[in-house]
Amino acid sequence: MPPKTNQALTVRDVAAYLNVDEKTIYRLAQRGELPGFKVAGAWRFQSVDLQRWIDQRKRLSAKPKAKGVRAKR
Questions:
Q1: In principle, which of 11, 15, 22, 28 could form an S-S bond with 33, CB 3.0–4.6 Å?
Q2: Residue 42, SS3 per DSSP
Q3: What is the end-to-end Cα distance of the chain in Å, rounded?
Q4: How much is the pTM?
């Protein structure tokens, strides 16, 4: 779990927390899909922003799908 402080997390920290490859974190951040910011050219993330992002994703995945609508692959 990310630290409870306001310390900025690195790509490595976030990748370990989400159990994904670091390349996935870079890709999501560059696309603006994962909330982050750059400091001296390096991506950094705040734990509070990540938790909000996770909560949003959980709500979206919990919504029932309409009949006859196929999920994107």
A1: 28
A2: strand
A3: 29
A4: 0.76
Q: CA–CA separation, 25 vs 21, rounded Å?
A: 7
Q: Distances in Å between the alpha carbon of 70 and those of 37, 56, 58, 64?
A: 34, 21, 19, 12
- Which among 55, 59, 58, 53 is positioned nearest to 36, based on CA atoms? 53
Domain ranges of the chain: 11-62
| CA-wise closest residue to 9 among 37, 40, 31, 30 | 37
Which pLDDT band, with edges at 50, 70 and 90, does 71 fall under? low
Q: What count of other Cβ atoms lies within 10 Å of the Cβ of residue 53?
A: 17
Is 1:17 a contact under the CB 8 Å cutoff?
Answer: yes
